Amino acid sequence: MEKDKLYILAFESSCDETSVAVLQDDKVISNVILSQEYHTAFGGVVPEIASREHLRKIVEMTDASLKKANIEMKDIDLVAATSEPGLIGAILIGLSFAKSLAATLNKPFIPVNHIQAHLYSAFINDTQPEFPFIALIVSGGHTLLILVEDFFKHKILGTTIDDAVGEAFDKVAKMMGLGYPGGPLIDKYAKDGDINFHEFPISVIKNSKYNFSFSGIKTSVLYYLRDSNFQANRNDKLISDISASFQHAAIKTLYSKVRKAAKEFKVKDIAISGGVSANSYLNQMFKTLEKDRYRIHIPELIYTTDNAAMIGITAYYKYLASKDKDYFSKESLSVKARPRLDFTNF
Ligand code: KG4
Ligand code: ZN
Questions:
Q1: In the chain, what are the domain boundaries?
Q2: Would the CB of 276 count as within 6 Å of ligand 1?
Q3: How much is the pTM?
Q4: Distance in Å, CA 22 to ligand 1 centroid
């Protein structure tokens, strides 16, 4: 075992994934993820069920992650967990468990912002983005366009003024009677569909070139389904065509704003992360930018949706960047690392 390297044990429990990872510095050694299935029947995540499932599984998942990494608890040098934002009860399970472990092991604890973790998931790849770069974070809860000048030096250029893009995918899928989460299903159906089948309009936001709005397109799909008598005509081809047209409009707006920002800030690296970055059409569209010598960084599929490896890598960089390492041994175990629902300190 190389003693100069840090072994990090990281936890993610902000929504419906219980995940535990072990990293050696910035290298992921194990990343076990349990996606709770109980929510499917409800068409969305039920917070109370999520908390209870995290509680039921967290010890088992920790053991599995350590076993997979082939190390023991005593080898751990740092403990990290998601501390914000997310479902408060769900976060509290992972956060309290992780803090207790850190206190017992007498090791530093590092609280991690979940959105920042999606951003730094781009660094799990072999080729890492070079600063400054444009980051697009697209998940079920957030749509953020960010200029990343250095580690933890972020300037938010734009965000959604209503629904997150993943939320729009989920809602459109629900309207067509597909399952939850809807993003992967829309992605799958869209592969056999026609992007020109119908033009779903994307709202233009006055006086803001980098903000997003996805509530209008969702409503326009709703009206289209109603006016075209979708329920009576429902078939796979129709679902595919609507999925392809909706997906094209949603992804194109992300693409246009990212390209505009990359040009304005003269960056060559673009990192896209969060659940929606798993989308195959998004991957295809953004890769076309490579012909203009942009470098596109999208995490491996397993790191696009919620996972503890991204918490671990963010904790690693946060620890390296911190001038006061003692902070993580003392205050971070106290009230200062309490969970928060917003992310004003992003
Ligand atoms: O990052 P994530 O796992 O959780 C949040 O932090 O929200 O993102 C989940 C979101 C869901 O809305 C899901 O439908 C969407 O990511 N998603 C996709 C795809 N895979 C997951 N959306 C479009 N295409 C996909 N292939
Ligand atoms: Zn997430």
A1: 7-119+304-340, 128-298
A2: yes
A3: 0.92
A4: 23
Strand bridging mode 17-24 / 27-35: antiparallel
163 lines ligand 1 (CB under 6 A): no
Other beta carbons within 10 Å of 127: 10
Structure tokens, 179? 């399952």
Q: What is the pLDDT of residues 282-325, one digit of tens each?
A: 999 999 999 999 999 999 999 999 999 999 999 999 999 887 77
CATH of domain 7-119+304-340: 3.30.420.40
Q: Is the CB of 193 under 6 A from ligand 1?
A: no
CB-ligand 1 contact for 86 (6 Å cutoff): no
* Same fold: 7-119+304-340 with 128-298: yes
Nearest to 260 by CA among 296, 294, 209, 211: 209
Q: Which ligand sits closest to the CA of 142?
A: 1
Which residue type does 253 have?
T
Quick one: tokens of 259?
Answer: 């390209």
According to DSSP, the residues that pair with 10 across neighbouring strands are 21, 80
Superfamily of domain 128-298: ATPase, nucleotide binding domain (3.30.420.40)
**Exposed / middle / buried, residue 80 (Cβ in 10 Å: 0-12, 13-18, 19+):** buried
